[in-house]
Amino acid sequence: MSGPVTNLRSLDSANFKTSKRADIVNDLLRSKLGLQHRYEPARLAIAHSLAIPEAAPPLSGEDGDDSGKVIMGKTLFGDDELPVWVAMIVEKAGLIHPTVDDIQEQVRRHWHRGILLLQSEWENCTEGYEQFILFLAQRAGLPAHGQTITTRKGDEPEATDLGESAVPVTLRLGDPGTDLSSGQPVTWLLNGKGSPHVALMGGTGSGKTRLAVNLIEQIRRQAGAPVILFDMAKGDLAGNSDLVQAIQGRVVASPNHPIPLDVLYIPDKSQKEITHAAMRFRESFIRIPKNKLGAVQQDSLRDAARNAFQNHKLPIGIETVRQELLAIYAQNNRKQDAAVSTFNDLTQWKLFEPLMKPAEFFSQSWVIDVHEAAETAQRLVVFLILDALYAYFKSLEDAPLDQQNHRALRLVLVVDEARRVLSYGQQSLIGLVRESRSKGVSVFLISQSPEDFDTVEDNFLEQIGLTACFRSNSNSPRVLRACLGQTVDLAGLPDGIAVARLPGNPNITRIKAWE
Questions:
Q1: In whole angstroms, what is the distance from residue 369 CA to residue 234 CA?
Q2: Dihedral, 44, 266, 436, 438 alpha carbons, nearest 10
C-alpha cells in the first residue's frame, strides 16, 4: 500500500471509480439530467452521500467485486476544488494518515451510495426534471421561490432544533373542528401528560383520512417532526402531492423501488445484538406465510438469521438470511418447505437497499407505498421497517421535556389500513404503542372499524390518547366500549361527523370535523 498523501498532486492523476452498477446509473442520470460529462452526476452523488451523517459503508457482493469506468482525480474534482473535496472525504471517514488507496476507496463508497440514492429520488419524482431539481434544493435547505431562509412561524422550531426542542403541539380536530352541541373549537394536546397516539376509524368516504392528513400537517407545522407513513390501501396518500410536500417526504413505491434502509442493521456484532436482531427477524417473518410455521421451522429461521449476522460482513440483507436457511436445511437433509418457499417469493424483488442506517433514514419523512405489492411482500416490508424503528428508538435516551412537561416530538408513525398489521399481532408495532411515548414518537393508526383493534390485547386501546370514530358498521358493544367508553350508533353518523373520547372527559364528544 502506498504511503500517506503528502501532496495533492498524487490525487490529480489517480484513477477513481465506483461499482459497475453505480456506473451504469451514473450514465443513466447524466442522460436524464441533460449533463455533458460523467463527472457531473458523480460529483452530485458524492456530495449527496457526504451529507449523510454516517460514513459510507463498504460495498458488498457483486458491487464490491465489479468496477465501473475510471475518472482521473483532476477531472472528477477539478483543480481548484480538489482540496475541499479531499478534506470533506477524509474528515467524514475519520482518516488520520490517508493514502491514495484510502481516498480512492472512500470515493468508491460515496459515489456508489450517492448515485443509488439519486436514482431512487429521480424515480420517485414522477413529474420529472423540475420536481427532481426542486426536491434536491429542498434537501439542501434552499428556500422555495419567493421565500427567505429565515421564515419561521410562531413557535415552529428551526430545522436544527427539530426532534429535540419541546413545544406544545395542540391539534384542532378538523375544519371547522367544532363541538356539535356548543359550536366551540375541539382541540387536543398531543404531547402533554397523556398518550400521544391516535386511532382514527371510519368507512370509505366518512372523513377519517381527511382528518388524518389535516392532523399530520398540523404536527409538521408546529413541531417539524419527520413522518413515516405506510400507504397499504390504494396509494391515495402516496399520490397526495400536497401531503407529501407538507411533510417534505419522499415516496418509495415497493416492490418496484428498493427502500434505502439498512433494515437489518445492528450497531455491532456482540452476542446480545445478534440474538435480539435474530429474534426480531424470526418473530416478524413467521407472521408472513399464510400457514403457521412449526417449531422446527421457527428455530431454523432464528438460527439462519443469527448465522447471517455472525458469518457475513455487515450490512446483510434478506437474501443472506435465505442462504443461511438453505445451508441449515442442506446440513440436516430437510426438504424445502413453506419457510423456504416464502423466502424464494420475497427475494424475487430487491425490497431494500442498505444505503442508510436507521438514524439517517428515520430523521427524514417517507411515504412507503406498498399497495401494489403482493401481500407477503407488503407484510415483510412493513414488519421489518417497524422492527428497525422500534430497535432504533429503544436505543435512544428519552426525549426532553420543557418546563410544562411537554415532550419533544421526534417522529410521527402513520399506518393506513392498520388492520393489515394489527391482525398479525406484529410485536414491534405493539411495542411502539406501549413504549415509545417517552422517546417522542406519536403513532397514528387508521382503520375501517373499531373491530380492527379487537385482534390485539384487550388493554391495547388504553395506550391510545385520542380515539375518533366516523361512520362505521361496527355494532359490537364490547368493542365500542373499549374504543369510546360507551356504545354509539356509528352507522348513523353523517359524513364529516366524528365521535371522540377526549382526555379528561368521561363522555364522548360529537365533532363536526368537515363541512
A1: 9
A2: -90
Query: Which of 487, 470, 491, 469 minimizes the C-alpha distance to 478?
Result: 487
Within 10 angstroms of residue 349's Cβ, the number of other Cβ atoms is 18
Can you give the pLDDT at residue 410? 95
3-state secondary structure of 461: helix
Both 250 and 110 in one domain: the answer is no
| Per-residue pLDDT reduced to its tens digit, 76-105 | 998 788 889 989 998 888 888 889 899 999
Domain range spanning residue 253? 173-261+354-512
Instruction: Tell me the pLDDT band of 131, cut-offs 50, 70 and 90.
Output: low
pLDDT in tens, 137-191: 655 555 444 444 333 333 333 333 344 678 899 999 999 999 998 999 999 999 9
Which residue among 346, 373, 396 closes a domain?
346
- All residues at 6 or more sequence positions from 390 whose CB lies less than 8 Å from its CB, including other chains: 280, 428, 429, 431, 432, 436
Dist CA 169 CA 191 (whole Å) = 6
Q: Which of 63, 200, 182, 35 is nearest to 122 (CA)?
A: 35
Hey, which residues does 414 pair with through a beta bridge?
229, 444
CA distance 504 to 434: 20
Q: How far is the first Cα of the chain from the last one, in angstroms, to the nearest whole number?
A: 72
Give me the residue label for grid cell 382528518: 211
Question: What are the beta bridge partners of residue 175?
Answer: 514
3-state secondary structure of 170: strand
C-alpha 53/C-alpha 161 separation (Å) is 16
| DSSP three-state, residue 1 | coil
Could you tell me if 277 and 372 are in contact, meaning their C-beta atoms sit under 8 angstroms apart? no
C-alpha cell at 419: 388492520
The tally of domains found in the chain comes to 3
Give the closest residue to 77 by CA, choosing from 102, 116, 103.
Answer: 103
Residue 506 predicted with pLDDT over 90: no
Residue that has been written with the C-alpha cell 399497495 in this structure? 371
Torsion of CA 172, 178, 183, 185, to 10 degrees: 0
Is 59 in a helix, a strand, or coil?
coil
Cα separation values, 109 from 63, 124, 223, 386, 410, Å: 10, 23, 34, 27, 29
The amino acid sitting at 298 is Q
Quote the cell numbers at residue 206: 366518512
Q: Which of 320, 346, 372 is the last residue of a domain?
A: 346
